[in-house]
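Below is how a single chain appears once it has passed through the pipeline. First comes the sequence as given, then the structure the pipeline wrote out for it. We keep one example in the README because the format questions we get most often are answered faster by looking than by reading.
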Amino acid sequence: MSHLTDLPVWAAVLVCGLTLLGAAIALIGATGLLRLTNFYERLHAPTLATSGGVLLISIASIVCFAVLQSRWVFHEILIIVFVVVTTPVTLMLLGQAALYRDRVEEKRGVPLKQRPPREEPAE
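Resulting structure:
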């Protein structure tokens, strides 16, 4: 019932390797999320791992379905584009929200907002 038995050996090895590598990168990101201590450090590991893991797993899907069905890989390319574009934007927004919250709560170790220097009026 499965067409995966029709996949050539070279493609099966490539798909398995890319999938395992992508899953390993995602696991490293999840481990970093658990092991890092504060919120700002925890932002980086999952976002980098998400982009890398999704990229590799999507490439594995592209190879698999391109070899099996000779179809366009438009869906996988859209997934890659959306994840690569939205992940850094989400990282920046979460970081700015956390920084704002920490400044309002006046937590120690948070840099204060820098004000631009005042210009002297021309005489």
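Helices lie at 9-35, 39-69, 74-104.

See the next section for the split statistics.
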